[in-house]
Amino acid sequence: MTEDVQKHSVHTLVFRSLKRTHDMFVSDHAKSVALDDESHRVKMGVKLKTDYSAVLHMPILKEKDRIAQLPGSAHAIQDYTQPGDAPDYLIAGTHAYPSGPGMALTADTMIHRNPSEAGIHSMALALPPSQARQEAIRTAAGVADIHQHAGAAERSRPPSTAVSLMEGGGTRNSALIRRAPTMPKPQWHPPWKLFRVISGHLGWVRSIAVEPGNQWFVTGSADRTIKIWDLASGKLKLSLTGHISTVRGVAVSSRSPYLFSCGEDKQVKCWDLEYNKVIRHYHGHLSAVYDLDLHPTIDVLVTCSRDATARVWDIRTKANVHTLTGHTNTVATVRCQAVEPQVITGSHDSTIRLWDLIAGKTRATLTNHKKSVRTLVLHPRQHTFASGSADNIKQWMFPDGSFIQNLSGHSAIINTLAVNSDGVLVSGADNGTIHMWDWRTGYNFQRIHAAVQPGSLDSESGIFACVFDHSESRLITAEADKTIKVYKEDEMATEETHPVNWKPEILKRKRF
Fold this sequence. Notes:
Layout: H1 10-25, H2 37-52, H3 61-69, E1 88-90, E2 111-113, H4 117-126, H5 131-137, H6 141-149, E3 165-167, E4 170-172, E5 192-199, E6 205-210, E7 216-221, E8 225-230, E9 236-241, E10 247-252, E11 258-263, E12 268-272, E13 277-281, E14 289-294, E15 300-305, E16 309-314, E17 320-325, E18 331-336, E19 343-347, E20 352-356, E21 361-366, E22 373-378, E23 384-389, E24 393-397, E25 402-407, E26 414-419, E27 424-429, E28 433-438, E29 444-449, E30 463-468, E31 474-479, E32 483-489
Antiparallel strand pairs: 1-2, 3-4, 5-32, 6-7, 7-8, 8-9, 10-11, 11-12, 12-13, 14-15, 15-16, 16-17, 18-19, 19-20, 20-21, 22-23, 23-24, 24-25, 26-27, 27-28, 28-29, 30-31, 31-32
């Protein structure tokens, strides 16, 4: 009697084989490739001839004196000319020249020797690293580390070897240590826990913003109201009515006592918080306005809409300074910053555009996403940003939108992103899940799915917006069960109670 062979899908078999391969080679992970002496010698010979062919005939005596004076170079100095190497040659002709400035032309100084390859190599190792190279090494570690490990295939270099560089016509020598690439370990972050649930809205809570003084925050809802809440106690301070449809975006100015709101009624309003009244309307959008952001240094407001445009407004004169056209579908999110590119938009056409604010034109279009881009967030310290879509979260670097890495695993429609200075990235999705990520490595260290408000359906579990307060000790989320939830870090957690369960995934990093 024959036994039935258990059938597996091709997908299961492939990944089982992949896991076996990974387990077999995991002990050799990040080990440097063995150096082949012969090929390395040929490579260095070619490099030295290429880089130094223009200076091989130069006088030697002064060079030897100069190298001897360099600090820390005594151990690396060898005689620049080796016995038995290139033959001596005699300066001939009517204009004989000495070996260096200020040296008399004598019988000794008329004799010049060709430098040997070994001499050139020892001199290159003795020279100090150029100042420019040291500056390059001191650049932001976060982005550099991400780039080092996120996808660029680096050649592993054997240790204790150095090469010299010549760039731009001048000599820039540096000792580059040959190191094997290593996967950076994620920084430990304490887990977050639910701290407070605030009820009061009668519809989905669609937008949220914290005022610069960190005393209160404001929410906009599908019940057409804007509510202002005390941040410390969670009590309602004020309700503002005026929109005739869902309020999709709110922003509080740090330069004036103004609150800005936009909604699906095509309206963009400016509220004076000293009188709690609308003092300006910005007319121009042809369809629902989905998001808005204030420029941090100039009095400019940028809004984006379902009419596939973003508009730049002068706050005081209400003038439509620019209409940023180019997207082919709803523009769902917009962000402003003080440096170029000053405006970034994400759209349902699955592209991100970086805009030149002065010219009102696109600087760059990022087409890596395959699904609608619904949210963008700028890192508060690094010159980087992240975008959220249903396919995954992607990190980018300014000013040109260079791709850094993917953060995959939040398999839902991502509506909102927030990041704090500690490198905690939060993503909130349509199904009510919140994922916490380490910004630098993309490690997902926590997943939260809070229960819906009693009396709500489970299907009303959804996160529409989230933001950190200015102390970065509270995370505030706007949800589909008509509540606002406040999260804080768990003070009792330690690295022992909540260890980093980090396993580098072999197929995690994608090239696009």
